[in-house]
Description:
- The protein is of the alpha+beta class.
- Helices cover 26% and strands 29% of the residues.
- It contains 8 helices and 18 strands.
- The chain has helices at 19-27, 69-72, 95-108, 116-129, 203-218, 264-275, 287-296, 334-347; strands spanning 9-10, 38-45, 49-57, 75-77, 80-84, 90-93, 141-150, 162-172, 181-185, 223-227, 235-238, 242-247, 250-253, 279-282, 299-306, 310-319, 322-325, 358-360.
- Strands 1, 2, 3, 4, 5, 6, 7, 8 and 18 form a 9-stranded mixed β-sheet that branches.
- α3 (95-108) packs across α4 (116-129).
- The two termini are 25 Å apart.
Amino acid sequence: MDSTTPSFSFTPNPAPVSPERRAELMANPGFGRVFTDHMATVSYTEGRGWHDAKVVPYGPLSLDPASSVLHYAQEIFEGLKAYRTPEGSVVMFRPDANARRFRDSAARMAMAELPEELFVGAIEALVRADRDWVPSGEGQSLYLRPFMISNDVFLGVKPASEYLFCVIACPVGAYFGGGCVSVWVSETYTRAAPGGTGAVKCGGNYAASLQAQAESKREGCDQVLFLDSREQRYVEEMGGMNVVFVDGDTLVTPPLGGTILPGITRDTLLMLARARGLKVEERPLPIDEVFEKAASGQFSEAFACGTAAVISPIGKLRRPTGEAVFGDGVTPGALSLSLKDELVGLQTGRGNDANGWVHRIL
């Protein structure tokens, strides 16, 4: 197919969720539990390229037991949101950045690279089909999950020659509740190693983080923070989010270098901070320095950032030898909340989109 002008066929769901039931589900959707009526799919075959783009009823995928994704984990995904603006239109925020990261992930995983316009076109086609699922409540959005799997049927260890790209969607509320989150610093597990897939959005990275996340729960914390794999000394990122510390008029965050996911929310917040005249330091950050500067009050705030949670203020970091408390440990910091308000305003079409980040669908 001509990737510059993606065209999707449409097969309507013969049994869509009723408007009454949809309203009931969307009143309190939680996160990742309620799905819309349709999904978008595109197939890839070596020698033919991308083809058979369609929007079809949401439902199970049919996979051969020998499909390579089940054995060698050639799989990647993205996460972004569609928002209902105050005027009732539907927009996305920087989908081109997600499309580029998806291609980068595919390249690292030796998978077929999906053209950016096909990535965005698939999302647009799905959102148009399921426009009534885009919520308008405070803090709500339509979470979009594009993903790609290798569905070649073989048991040899080599890159697959067939892939399936799919987009599903679910209305969501806040990822975390209000207030601050507590974070356990893992000294047992690491998330990624140099030369590995730390900068890639692949399922294996998240599977490898689950044991550490369980450890954090046992320690009474909401999330886990990983350190570097070589020395277990430097801050890297959290289980599913980047991390930032506030030092006066400066945001301090670990540098990207192959072991940290290049978060689009992270990138956006750093640009917004610079536009305000704040300083940004992307540098190696020893965990001992974080604890020392939290104790002295020099690091007055800390927050996690990512698509799902936007900004989640951190109240405490905990490790076996003690705690680092930011502010009073309970109240979100003023700068964290201010940056969140500015970003959410842009995402929902209420801010001044000077950078052209807002992508209108409807």
